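User: Hey, my collaborator sent me this sequence without any context and asked if I could get a structure. I don't really work with proteins. Can you help?
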Amino acid sequence: MKDAAETDQARVVLVCCAADAQPARIHLAGGPAAAASGVPADTWLKIEGRVRDGVSVLSSNFIPTLAGNSCRSRVPLRTTVIGCRPGSTPS
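Assistant: No problem. I've predicted the 3D structure and written it out in structure-token form, which is a compact way to encode the shape of the chain:
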């Protein structure tokens, strides 16, 4: 997720069905933020670092900040949907 001032890493979390989808995100700071801002949307990244203390508060919408020390693109893991066979729809 990018805007003019920030870069966040995000995934969509599904608990039950697509109607329950919620973004899970973390704000990026440091070198990995700059590296991540230059990659195309929907690129999977592996970012390593430390979550900063005291930044996941109401004024930041409880979004933590990761002070990263490395960033690299990676191939996504295969997604498995429980209860489905290839070519079928979820029940």
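In plain terms: Strands lie at 8-13, 22-29, 45-51, 65-73. You can pass these tokens on to your collaborator as they are.
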